[in-house]
Amino acid sequence: MRRKEKVMALEGRCLGALIHEDLTKIKEWRNSQIDTLRQWKPLTDQNQEEWFQRISKDESQAVFAIRSLIGDKEELIGYCALVRIDTVNRRAELSFLVDPSRAQDKDLYENDMRCSLALLCAYGFDQMALHKIFTETFEFRKEHMSILEDFGFRKEGSMRDHQWKKGRFWDSILHSMLEQEWREIRGKWF
Fold first, then answer.
1. Domains, the chain, ordered by start
2. Strands 62-70 and 91-98
3. What is the 8-class DSSP label of residue 79?
4. pTM, whole model, 2 decimals?
5. Which residue has the higher pLDDT, 44 or 81?
6. If we measure between CA atoms, which residue out of 100, 118, 151, 34 comes closest to residue 175?
7. Residue 153: how many CB atoms within 10 A of its CB?
8. What is the per-residue pLDDT across 153-177, written as a single tens digit (0 to 9) for each?
9. Is there a contact between 106 and 146 (Cβ–Cβ < 8 Å)?
10. If DSSP states are collapsed to H, E and C, what string results for 16-74?
């Protein structure tokens, strides 16, 4: 994992290092939102510890805590990442998850996601020199996809009946942004 103490901040949120003390909350959040993730069973403390050890050594992932900034205090509100980083083809997959109480508040979720997208894109395109950032979303997550598209990600296509969730198969929808598309919208954020 590419570690940074605080990468950058935007609108009261910052991306920073994921620390061991964050693991319990993240495990709880992932387990409570299992239907929206590519996760098939509840995580245990051991699963979470193994994941943390793996990402701590893995250069093909840049995993960040999302923290809200309240005065000089920081509070963990989620995590996001660029995973499956391919330095030859200069691409990575985006991952994003916030505290379920924030995810239930539509406006708060949208603001958290937009800020995280801007910060991850700035990191991926500006600092890592990526050419493409992409993501996969289950077709039933309409609001999530709407935020991606409003931000500037383009729908690339779908993989039909790709994931088994909630007792049936669902399509997975692919979205991406290219570095030139980021350059065109970067000024809205920084």
1. 6-188 (3.40.630.30)
2. unpaired
3. E
4. 0.89
5. 81
6. 151
7. 23
8. 999 999 999 989 889 999 999 999 9
9. no
10. EECCHHHHHHHHHHHHHCHHHCCCCCCCCHHHHHHHHHHHHHCCCCEEEEEEEEECCEE
